[in-house]
Design a protein that fits this description.
With 391 residues, the chain is of the alpha/beta class. It is 47% helix and 13% strand. The longest helix is centred in the first third of the chain and has 43 residues. The protein starts with a helix and ends in a 7-residue tail after the last helix.
Protein backbone atom coordinates (compact mmCIF):
# COMPACT_ATOMS: atom_id res chain seq x y z
CA UNK A 1 0.00 0.00 0.00
CA UNK A 2 2.82 2.37 0.82
CA UNK A 3 4.70 1.40 -2.39
CA UNK A 4 1.65 2.14 -4.52
CA UNK A 5 1.30 5.63 -3.12
CA UNK A 6 4.96 6.31 -3.76
CA UNK A 7 4.58 5.22 -7.37
CA UNK A 8 1.54 7.42 -7.88
CA UNK A 9 3.37 10.38 -6.35
CA UNK A 10 6.37 9.78 -8.58
CA UNK A 11 4.17 9.59 -11.64
CA UNK A 12 2.49 12.80 -10.61
CA UNK A 13 5.83 14.60 -10.10
CA UNK A 14 7.09 13.33 -13.44
CA UNK A 15 3.98 14.56 -15.24
CA UNK A 16 4.20 17.97 -13.57
CA UNK A 17 7.87 18.34 -14.44
CA UNK A 18 7.17 17.46 -18.07
CA UNK A 19 4.39 20.00 -18.23
CA UNK A 20 6.57 22.75 -16.76
CA UNK A 21 9.34 21.94 -19.20
CA UNK A 22 6.97 22.04 -22.14
CA UNK A 23 5.52 25.34 -20.93
CA UNK A 24 9.00 26.78 -20.46
CA UNK A 25 9.95 25.77 -24.00
CA UNK A 26 6.76 27.41 -25.31
CA UNK A 27 7.43 30.60 -23.40
CA UNK A 28 10.99 30.72 -24.69
CA UNK A 29 9.78 30.15 -28.24
CA UNK A 30 7.11 32.83 -27.94
CA UNK A 31 9.55 35.26 -26.37
CA UNK A 32 12.10 34.65 -29.10
CA UNK A 33 9.50 34.98 -31.78
CA UNK A 34 7.99 38.25 -30.45
CA UNK A 35 11.05 39.86 -28.83
CA UNK A 36 11.26 43.62 -29.57
CA UNK A 37 8.12 43.63 -31.69
CA UNK A 38 4.61 42.57 -30.82
CA UNK A 39 3.43 42.42 -34.43
CA UNK A 40 3.38 39.34 -36.62
CA UNK A 41 5.67 41.02 -39.20
CA UNK A 42 8.55 41.28 -36.68
CA UNK A 43 10.07 38.12 -38.01
CA UNK A 44 10.69 39.94 -41.37
CA UNK A 45 12.40 43.03 -39.86
CA UNK A 46 15.98 42.15 -40.86
CA UNK A 47 14.93 41.74 -44.47
CA UNK A 48 13.11 45.10 -44.41
CA UNK A 49 16.18 46.88 -43.03
CA UNK A 50 18.36 45.35 -45.69
CA UNK A 51 15.96 46.43 -48.43
CA UNK A 52 15.81 49.99 -47.06
CA UNK A 53 19.59 50.19 -46.95
CA UNK A 54 19.76 48.88 -50.49
CA UNK A 55 17.25 51.50 -51.67
CA UNK A 56 19.27 54.25 -49.93
CA UNK A 57 22.43 53.03 -51.66
CA UNK A 58 20.63 53.08 -55.02
CA UNK A 59 19.35 56.63 -54.42
CA UNK A 60 22.82 57.85 -53.50
CA UNK A 61 24.40 56.12 -56.44
CA UNK A 62 21.75 57.64 -58.77
CA UNK A 63 22.19 61.14 -57.31
CA UNK A 64 25.93 61.32 -58.02
CA UNK A 65 25.57 61.15 -61.83
CA UNK A 66 22.74 63.67 -61.63
CA UNK A 67 24.92 66.11 -59.66
CA UNK A 68 27.74 65.57 -62.14
CA UNK A 69 25.41 66.45 -65.03
CA UNK A 70 24.24 69.63 -63.25
CA UNK A 71 27.84 70.63 -62.54
CA UNK A 72 28.86 70.05 -66.16
CA UNK A 73 25.93 72.14 -67.41
CA UNK A 74 26.83 74.99 -65.03
CA UNK A 75 30.46 74.78 -66.10
CA UNK A 76 29.41 74.85 -69.76
CA UNK A 77 27.24 77.94 -69.21
CA UNK A 78 29.99 79.62 -67.17
CA UNK A 79 32.51 79.13 -69.97
CA UNK A 80 30.04 79.81 -72.80
CA UNK A 81 29.03 83.30 -71.58
CA UNK A 82 32.46 84.97 -72.00
CA UNK A 83 32.90 83.28 -75.38
CA UNK A 84 29.45 84.47 -76.47
CA UNK A 85 30.19 88.02 -75.29
CA UNK A 86 33.49 88.01 -77.16
CA UNK A 87 31.87 86.77 -80.36
CA UNK A 88 28.90 89.18 -80.02
CA UNK A 89 30.14 92.42 -78.41
CA UNK A 90 26.68 93.97 -78.79
CA UNK A 91 25.59 91.79 -75.85
CA UNK A 92 28.05 93.62 -73.61
CA UNK A 93 26.72 96.97 -74.84
CA UNK A 94 23.19 95.95 -73.83
CA UNK A 95 24.48 94.97 -70.38
CA UNK A 96 26.11 98.39 -69.97
CA UNK A 97 23.05 100.38 -71.03
CA UNK A 98 20.27 98.05 -69.80
CA UNK A 99 17.88 100.31 -71.71
CA UNK A 100 15.57 97.32 -72.32
CA UNK A 101 14.83 97.18 -68.56
CA UNK A 102 11.84 99.45 -67.95
CA UNK A 103 11.29 99.69 -64.21
CA UNK A 104 8.68 100.40 -63.01
CA UNK A 105 6.66 98.69 -65.72
CA UNK A 106 3.32 99.80 -67.09
CA UNK A 107 3.70 103.51 -66.39
CA UNK A 108 2.57 106.08 -68.92
CA UNK A 109 5.48 108.49 -69.43
CA UNK A 110 3.07 110.93 -71.07
CA UNK A 111 1.36 111.33 -67.69
CA UNK A 112 3.97 112.39 -65.10
CA UNK A 113 1.10 113.38 -62.81
CA UNK A 114 0.51 109.66 -62.26
CA UNK A 115 3.88 109.62 -60.47
CA UNK A 116 2.91 112.52 -58.21
CA UNK A 117 4.43 115.18 -60.49
CA UNK A 118 1.36 117.35 -61.07
CA UNK A 119 3.59 120.32 -61.93
CA UNK A 120 5.51 118.52 -64.69
CA UNK A 121 4.97 118.75 -68.45
CA UNK A 122 5.83 115.95 -70.88
CA UNK A 123 6.90 116.77 -74.43
CA UNK A 124 9.19 115.53 -77.22
CA UNK A 125 12.18 117.08 -78.99
CA UNK A 126 14.12 115.99 -82.06
CA UNK A 127 17.92 116.21 -81.70
CA UNK A 128 18.35 114.43 -85.03
CA UNK A 129 16.21 113.31 -87.95
CA UNK A 130 14.00 110.34 -87.06
CA UNK A 131 15.03 110.57 -83.41
CA UNK A 132 12.43 111.90 -80.96
CA UNK A 133 13.26 111.93 -77.26
CA UNK A 134 10.86 112.24 -74.34
CA UNK A 135 11.42 115.18 -71.97
CA UNK A 136 9.96 116.24 -68.61
CA UNK A 137 10.05 119.78 -67.28
CA UNK A 138 9.24 120.08 -63.58
CA UNK A 139 8.73 123.65 -62.39
CA UNK A 140 9.49 124.76 -58.81
CA UNK A 141 6.92 123.29 -56.42
CA UNK A 142 5.73 126.78 -55.49
CA UNK A 143 4.25 127.09 -59.01
CA UNK A 144 2.26 123.87 -58.93
CA UNK A 145 -1.16 125.56 -58.74
CA UNK A 146 -0.39 127.79 -61.70
CA UNK A 147 0.92 124.80 -63.65
CA UNK A 148 -2.38 122.92 -63.71
CA UNK A 149 -3.68 122.43 -67.24
CA UNK A 150 -0.95 124.55 -68.84
CA UNK A 151 0.74 123.90 -72.18
CA UNK A 152 4.36 123.84 -73.36
CA UNK A 153 4.40 127.57 -74.04
CA UNK A 154 3.49 128.35 -70.42
CA UNK A 155 6.14 125.97 -69.09
CA UNK A 156 8.80 127.49 -71.34
CA UNK A 157 7.76 130.92 -70.11
CA UNK A 158 8.55 129.94 -66.53
CA UNK A 159 12.26 129.79 -67.45
CA UNK A 160 12.17 133.59 -67.37
CA UNK A 161 11.80 133.48 -63.59
CA UNK A 162 14.82 133.83 -61.33
CA UNK A 163 14.76 130.16 -60.34
CA UNK A 164 17.88 128.14 -61.30
CA UNK A 165 17.67 125.12 -63.60
CA UNK A 166 19.12 121.61 -63.22
CA UNK A 167 19.54 119.36 -66.28
CA UNK A 168 19.32 115.83 -64.84
CA UNK A 169 21.06 112.94 -66.64
CA UNK A 170 19.87 109.58 -65.34
CA UNK A 171 21.78 106.29 -65.20
CA UNK A 172 21.28 103.03 -67.03
CA UNK A 173 18.12 100.93 -66.88
CA UNK A 174 14.66 102.28 -66.23
CA UNK A 175 13.30 105.55 -67.57
CA UNK A 176 12.91 109.18 -66.55
CA UNK A 177 9.94 107.93 -64.51
CA UNK A 178 12.00 105.69 -62.20
CA UNK A 179 10.91 106.07 -58.58
CA UNK A 180 14.23 107.24 -57.10
CA UNK A 181 14.54 109.74 -59.95
CA UNK A 182 11.03 111.06 -59.40
CA UNK A 183 11.76 111.48 -55.69
CA UNK A 184 14.86 113.53 -56.48
CA UNK A 185 12.87 115.77 -58.86
CA UNK A 186 10.46 116.42 -56.00
CA UNK A 187 13.27 117.33 -53.60
CA UNK A 188 14.92 119.69 -56.06
CA UNK A 189 11.59 121.20 -57.06
CA UNK A 190 10.76 121.87 -53.40
CA UNK A 191 14.00 123.86 -53.18
CA UNK A 192 12.76 126.23 -55.89
CA UNK A 193 14.61 124.67 -58.83
CA UNK A 194 13.45 123.84 -62.36
CA UNK A 195 14.31 120.23 -63.26
CA UNK A 196 14.63 119.22 -66.91
CA UNK A 197 15.21 115.54 -67.56
CA UNK A 198 14.82 113.20 -70.52
CA UNK A 199 15.29 109.65 -71.75
CA UNK A 200 18.28 109.16 -74.03
CA UNK A 201 17.63 107.69 -77.44
CA UNK A 202 16.66 104.04 -77.02
CA UNK A 203 15.37 104.52 -73.44
CA UNK A 204 11.75 104.76 -72.35
CA UNK A 205 9.58 106.14 -75.16
CA UNK A 206 12.50 107.82 -76.93
CA UNK A 207 13.37 106.60 -80.42
CA UNK A 208 16.74 105.44 -81.70
CA UNK A 209 19.51 103.10 -80.61
CA UNK A 210 21.64 103.73 -77.51
CA UNK A 211 25.32 104.57 -77.74
CA UNK A 212 27.72 106.75 -75.75
CA UNK A 213 28.01 109.15 -78.66
CA UNK A 214 24.22 109.37 -79.03
CA UNK A 215 23.65 109.87 -75.29
CA UNK A 216 26.17 112.72 -75.21
CA UNK A 217 24.63 114.30 -78.31
CA UNK A 218 21.16 114.18 -76.73
CA UNK A 219 22.47 115.79 -73.53
CA UNK A 220 24.22 118.54 -75.50
CA UNK A 221 21.04 119.21 -77.49
CA UNK A 222 18.93 119.51 -74.32
CA UNK A 223 21.51 121.75 -72.67
CA UNK A 224 21.47 124.14 -75.63
CA UNK A 225 17.66 124.01 -75.78
CA UNK A 226 17.40 125.05 -72.12
CA UNK A 227 20.19 127.62 -72.36
CA UNK A 228 18.41 129.40 -75.21
CA UNK A 229 15.37 129.85 -72.96
CA UNK A 230 17.02 130.90 -69.71
CA UNK A 231 19.68 133.27 -71.01
CA UNK A 232 22.22 134.15 -68.34
CA UNK A 233 20.41 132.41 -65.47
CA UNK A 234 22.13 129.58 -63.59
CA UNK A 235 22.15 126.17 -65.28
CA UNK A 236 23.62 123.18 -63.43
CA UNK A 237 24.23 119.66 -64.73
CA UNK A 238 23.44 116.70 -62.46
CA UNK A 239 24.47 113.19 -63.45
CA UNK A 240 23.79 109.93 -61.62
CA UNK A 241 25.64 106.64 -62.07
CA UNK A 242 26.10 106.06 -65.83
CA UNK A 243 24.72 109.58 -66.26
CA UNK A 244 27.90 110.90 -64.59
CA UNK A 245 29.83 109.61 -67.59
CA UNK A 246 27.42 111.46 -69.88
CA UNK A 247 27.73 114.57 -67.69
CA UNK A 248 31.54 114.72 -67.85
CA UNK A 249 31.41 114.13 -71.63
CA UNK A 250 28.97 117.01 -71.97
CA UNK A 251 30.81 119.40 -69.67
CA UNK A 252 34.12 118.64 -71.37
CA UNK A 253 32.60 119.65 -74.71
CA UNK A 254 31.14 122.81 -73.25
CA UNK A 255 34.43 123.76 -71.59
CA UNK A 256 36.36 123.09 -74.80
CA UNK A 257 34.01 125.59 -76.49
CA UNK A 258 34.59 128.12 -73.73
CA UNK A 259 30.99 127.92 -72.48
CA UNK A 260 31.15 125.89 -69.24
CA UNK A 261 28.01 125.34 -67.15
CA UNK A 262 27.63 127.03 -63.78
CA UNK A 263 28.45 123.76 -61.98
CA UNK A 264 28.46 119.98 -62.33
CA UNK A 265 27.07 117.61 -59.69
CA UNK A 266 28.05 113.93 -59.88
CA UNK A 267 26.07 111.43 -57.82
CA UNK A 268 27.65 107.97 -57.43
CA UNK A 269 30.26 108.47 -60.17
CA UNK A 270 32.99 106.17 -61.46
CA UNK A 271 36.35 106.83 -63.12
CA UNK A 272 35.78 105.04 -66.43
CA UNK A 273 33.57 102.26 -67.70
CA UNK A 274 36.30 99.60 -67.65
CA UNK A 275 37.05 100.14 -63.96
CA UNK A 276 33.34 100.26 -63.17
CA UNK A 277 32.64 97.04 -65.09
CA UNK A 278 35.47 95.31 -63.27
CA UNK A 279 34.10 96.46 -59.90
CA UNK A 280 30.43 95.75 -60.64
CA UNK A 281 28.78 92.92 -58.64
CA UNK A 282 27.74 91.17 -61.88
CA UNK A 283 31.39 90.64 -62.79
CA UNK A 284 32.26 89.03 -59.46
CA UNK A 285 32.01 85.44 -60.75
CA UNK A 286 34.36 86.23 -63.66
CA UNK A 287 36.68 88.81 -62.12
CA UNK A 288 39.52 86.34 -61.52
CA UNK A 289 38.96 84.36 -64.71
CA UNK A 290 42.12 84.40 -66.86
CA UNK A 291 41.48 86.72 -69.78
CA UNK A 292 38.68 88.67 -68.04
CA UNK A 293 39.79 91.93 -69.64
CA UNK A 294 40.03 90.33 -73.09
CA UNK A 295 36.63 88.66 -72.86
CA UNK A 296 34.57 91.39 -71.20
CA UNK A 297 36.32 94.76 -70.99
CA UNK A 298 37.67 94.71 -74.54
CA UNK A 299 34.14 93.89 -75.70
CA UNK A 300 32.94 97.15 -74.11
CA UNK A 301 35.69 99.10 -75.85
CA UNK A 302 34.78 97.41 -79.14
CA UNK A 303 31.37 99.08 -78.84
CA UNK A 304 33.09 102.49 -78.55
CA UNK A 305 31.95 102.80 -74.91
CA UNK A 306 34.45 104.54 -72.64
CA UNK A 307 32.75 107.11 -70.38
CA UNK A 308 36.23 108.27 -69.35
CA UNK A 309 35.36 110.71 -66.57
CA UNK A 310 38.93 110.50 -65.24
CA UNK A 311 40.27 111.81 -68.56
CA UNK A 312 37.49 114.37 -68.86
CA UNK A 313 38.44 115.91 -65.52
CA UNK A 314 41.60 117.29 -67.13
CA UNK A 315 39.46 119.33 -69.56
CA UNK A 316 36.76 120.60 -67.20
CA UNK A 317 36.77 124.14 -65.81
CA UNK A 318 33.70 124.62 -63.58
CA UNK A 319 32.81 123.82 -59.95
CA UNK A 320 32.45 120.08 -59.30
CA UNK A 321 30.50 118.42 -56.50
CA UNK A 322 30.74 114.65 -55.96
CA UNK A 323 28.18 112.82 -53.80
CA UNK A 324 28.77 109.16 -52.92
CA UNK A 325 27.41 106.71 -50.34
CA UNK A 326 29.89 104.44 -48.62
CA UNK A 327 27.54 101.45 -48.96
CA UNK A 328 27.03 101.84 -52.70
CA UNK A 329 26.95 98.29 -54.04
CA UNK A 330 26.74 99.20 -57.74
CA UNK A 331 29.43 101.85 -58.15
CA UNK A 332 31.93 101.25 -55.33
CA UNK A 333 32.70 104.18 -53.08
CA UNK A 334 36.42 104.00 -53.82
CA UNK A 335 35.80 104.87 -57.49
CA UNK A 336 34.04 108.10 -56.54
CA UNK A 337 36.87 108.94 -54.16
CA UNK A 338 39.45 108.18 -56.83
CA UNK A 339 37.68 110.47 -59.30
CA UNK A 340 37.71 113.24 -56.69
CA UNK A 341 41.47 112.82 -56.17
CA UNK A 342 41.97 113.11 -59.93
CA UNK A 343 39.81 116.25 -60.01
CA UNK A 344 41.69 118.06 -57.25
CA UNK A 345 44.97 117.42 -59.10
CA UNK A 346 43.60 118.62 -62.46
CA UNK A 347 45.19 121.86 -63.66
CA UNK A 348 42.03 122.78 -65.57
CA UNK A 349 40.12 122.85 -62.28
CA UNK A 350 42.58 125.15 -60.54
CA UNK A 351 40.65 128.02 -59.03
CA UNK A 352 37.34 126.12 -59.17
CA UNK A 353 35.60 124.59 -56.21
CA UNK A 354 35.92 120.80 -56.07
CA UNK A 355 34.05 119.12 -53.20
CA UNK A 356 33.50 115.51 -52.16
CA UNK A 357 30.65 114.65 -49.79
CA UNK A 358 30.56 111.05 -48.45
CA UNK A 359 27.45 109.58 -46.88
CA UNK A 360 28.18 107.08 -44.08
CA UNK A 361 27.21 103.46 -44.45
CA UNK A 362 24.95 103.75 -41.39
CA UNK A 363 22.54 105.94 -43.38
CA UNK A 364 21.80 103.14 -45.84
CA UNK A 365 21.60 105.39 -48.93
CA UNK A 366 23.37 102.82 -51.13
CA UNK A 367 23.37 103.59 -54.87
CA UNK A 368 20.27 105.67 -55.41
CA UNK A 369 18.82 107.03 -52.19
CA UNK A 370 21.00 110.06 -51.48
CA UNK A 371 17.93 112.20 -52.13
CA UNK A 372 16.70 111.07 -48.70
CA UNK A 373 19.45 112.97 -46.91
CA UNK A 374 18.01 115.86 -44.86
CA UNK A 375 21.38 117.60 -45.32
CA UNK A 376 21.16 117.61 -49.11
CA UNK A 377 19.55 121.10 -49.43
CA UNK A 378 22.28 122.67 -47.29
CA UNK A 379 25.02 120.74 -49.12
CA UNK A 380 23.76 122.09 -52.44
CA UNK A 381 23.32 125.62 -51.15
CA UNK A 382 26.81 125.71 -49.61
CA UNK A 383 28.42 124.28 -52.73
CA UNK A 384 26.66 126.57 -55.18
CA UNK A 385 27.62 129.55 -53.06
CA UNK A 386 24.15 130.98 -53.16
CA UNK A 387 21.05 130.27 -51.13
CA UNK A 388 18.54 128.25 -53.10
CA UNK A 389 15.12 129.95 -53.06
CA UNK A 390 13.56 127.66 -50.47
CA UNK A 391 16.41 126.13 -48.46
Amino acid sequence: MRKRNTSVAADHDSSLTKTLLDTSRGLKYCQKKGEGDQGPEAAFEPADLDSQKEMGRRRRSGMIPRLKRIFLWLLFIYLAIPILVKLCPSIQAKLVFLNFVRVPYFIDLKRPQDQGLNHTFNFYLQPEDRVNIGVWHTVPAQLWKDAQGQDLQWFEGTFQSSHPVILYLHGNAGTRGGDHRVQLYKVLSSLGVHVVTFDYRGWGDSEGTPSEKGMTADALFLYQWVKERIGEKSLYIWGHSLGTGVATNLVRRLCDKGTPPDAMILESPFTNIREEAKSHPFSMVYRFLPGFDWFFLDAITANDIRFASDENMHHISCPVLILHAEDDGVVPFHLGKKLYNIAVQSTSLNGHKVQFVPFPMSLGFKHKFIYRSPDLPHILSDFLGTALPYV
